[in-house]
Design a protein that fits this description.
The chain has 627 residues and is of the alpha+beta class. The strands form 2 sheets. It has an 8-stranded mixed β-sheet. A two-stranded antiparallel sheet has the order 5-6. The chain has 20 helices and 10 strands.
Amino acid sequence: MTFRQFAFNNVLRNKRLYAAYFLSSLFSVMVFFTFAVFAFHPSLGQGAVAQSVSIALTTAEGIIFVFAFFYVLYSMGAFLKTRKNEFGLLMMQGMSPVQLRAMVFLENMLIGFFSIIGGIVLGLVFGKLILLIAENVLIIGTDLDFYMPIKAILLTFIAFALLFLFISFFTAAILRSGKLIDLIKSKKRSKGEPAASKWLVGLAVLLIGGGYAAALIVDGMGVVFALVPVVVVVIVGTYFLFTQLSVFVIHRLKANRSVFWKKTNMLLLSDLSFRMKDNARTFFMVAVVSTVAFSAIGSLYGFKSLLNDSIKQQNPFSMTYTLFEEDSQTEQQDVEQINHYLQGQGIEAHQEKVNFTYFTIDNFETPERILKLSDFNRLAVLAGEKEIVIPKNGVAVMEMKNNAFPVDKSLRSSSIPLTSGESVKPNQVVQTDVIPYTRGFIVPDSLFEKLGSPVRTEPFYAWQSKASFQKMADAGKVLGGKLQKGEQPSFFATDWELYELNAGYGPTLFVGLFIGMVFFVSAGSILYFRLYSDLDEDKEKFRAIAKMGLTEQELKKVLNQQIAILFFSPIIVALLHGIVALTALSNMFYQPFFVECIYVLVIFAAIQIVYFFIVRYFYSKQIKSAL
């Protein structure tokens, strides 16, 4: 057997431990290659939107490559720790330190080579499907046909070949400091039961509680200023939570005899207290990485929903047309053109026209808008809102429903002069989004006649249609190009604005989702490493306990509890961090992200639960085979 064959057989013999490392590296390569396929796509070299997509994808490639570097480095380091005893035995058999480093180098390069090849092949296999998904998500206005991505293949192969080459040299160099006696006794050395400091336990509670409170209390722009301090405080608190608070809780449970002596709790808690010292840092890292993934995906999805809802809320009509200065000829021509185009496209739309009238109000420098009650109600019905009722001499102040915009309370205390020399004051407030740029007053028709001559009048038209989104977006694009000439007149098509928004935001959402997926898969893989690195010790432990009378049902229970704690402790912490982060973001924009947060949370948790059942099945199978 040659030395290369020996290294190759080592990889095959340790395929159980190498599986997560290989699959996660393969996934990182595949995602990097996918972004490269998009970035070098011929269709993305045309148009401003397409070029912005290409830039976003290229930036994402850099982020993924940097993260992949640290992830692979950590994975390799974690794997080498589990093989210290094996390395010691090889050195006792006559393997020199140089040969040991060469073996590790060859093993890592072998895994890296097959990860690169596998990632590129999978990217090519699913390339067309991913391109079809991207066409709908990115909304770039062009087809993304499949092509042979030679540049993407070369870039991916060279970039990850250099990455694995560097890490292989680095990990091989780490082995120089290992002494034979340390390697041989690595499994027999007592880890010692960790102790918890009450001061640090209190600090963990204080830091996380204070960070949560600050994040939930602040709103508006205060969220921006509180972001960095809160993140730092919560991260430090999370570290102490796993290294100190978790140990403290285990000690308290062990001190409670009714809990500790109940069935298999003694076995679970005793084992957990000894392993917590090793698992704490892993839990901390997984919690932070998972929080980043959860918060990033939730923020991007929530912000997209916020923008869409904001446009729909502030523009409840399919189309609007406003003429800021009376020009009957232009008005007639433009309205006829809009109606003619809609009829030509087979789009049925209901139309209403009102006049926005502006009057001089006491103590206000500029004229304020005053609407007839009948005009407002016609628009309200068209927008699907309820009609309002105002007393005979009453005045209503219009304010926007969205409290993200400050309310000018001076309107509520204003005084509206009448031609008779008297004046009336507002006696009610109407929160509505029926009127664009909501501000002004609504008065009964009888009172409107007593206001005198307005300073100016603006004709306002609104169309409401149930036609498909794509039809209305196309109509808005065509009519907007014909009618919108500077600021006069003003034509607005809601569906077209939503289309442009999604086209501009699509690349950010697409890139964010993929990067979040990379973080999420990597976090799961780290947990896989932590669990399987102790498999040999668990086999010996449960084999010894089984001889003392541990039943299969009790074994199953202990394994379920042990794996569940490993998997879900950092995930639950990450979900809590993510919920607080998304709540703070919603406070910044004064808009709830509750629904979006629940969607992301459920999907995130469901994937982790499925992953838990898969890993638990194979892990339990390995333990049972050793009994």
